[in-house]
Structures are given as C-alpha cells and as structure tokens.
Amino acid sequence: MRQAHTDRVEWRAWPVMRPVCLDSGAGGRANARRMKISSLKTSLGRLRCIGWWEGWSFLLLLGVAMPLKYFADWPLGVRVVGMAHGVLFMLYLVAALQAALEHDWPWKRTALVLAASVLPAGPFMVDARVLRAAEAEAAGK
Fold first, then answer.
1. Whole-model pTM?
2. Are 3 and 59 in contact (CB under 8 A)?
3. Most confident range, picked from 2-16, 36-50, 71-85
4. Which of 18, 68, 76, 100 is deepest in the core (most CB within 10 A)?
5. For 89-114, what is the mean pLDDT?
6. Which residues have C-beta within 8 Å of that of residue 31, sequence separation ≥ 6?
C-alpha cells in the first residue's frame, strides 16, 4: 500500500523563486495546479515575468554554461543558453521601456530597472524593491 507524500515543499516556501507569471495565488493544492497567467495582462506583470526568466537565464549562463565551456571544453551550453538569454534580455529591455512609458516613471527608476538587466540577480532585486511597489501603486490608482 502506497502512502501519500505529505512532506512536499510547495512554491510558497520560496516566494522569490516563484515566477510572477505562474503565481498560483491563494487557495489550496487544487488552485496551485491551475496556474493563472493574469499577470501577463499588465505591462508591470509582463516585466516581472520576463525579468524572472531573464535573471535565471543569466545565472544559468554564468554559473553553468560558462564553466562547462572553459573547464569541460563543451561550448554548446554557452551557445544554447546564451541565445536564450539574449532573446530574454531584449524582451526585458522592451518590457521595461513599455512599463516606463505606460506608468510615467521618472528617468532614475527607468535607469535603475534597465541597469539591473546587466547585473547577475539584478532583475530579482529590482522586482523585490521597485516593481512590486510600482505594481501596488498602479493597483491603488
């Protein structure tokens, strides 16, 4: 007889690790299976989602693909992950400019969001400090 696996760790244990675009919201395990993508309807939601993926692709490129290229003589990882990161980087820049224009951000906030895209883990820090506050501010209007 098989027992139910009760000690599973859910996404809620790591709030930074969960992509915004796949946020399951409140509810039990049934709602966690039906991931809503309503955050992609706003420019800030798209920016947060693309930033999540762009940040992880950059960390994967620096932490896995580059060491494989130079220490294991396997350059294919950099080619694949680098291409994905390049596309996500360009999408992040477009989404950041779209959000800045739509929400009339001051130039300092726009520059901070754009500068975060070239730093490892920069999109995560901007999401935690700037974008969540901007999204709450936009929801309050």
1. 0.74
2. no
3. 71-85
4. 100
5. 95
6. 24, 25
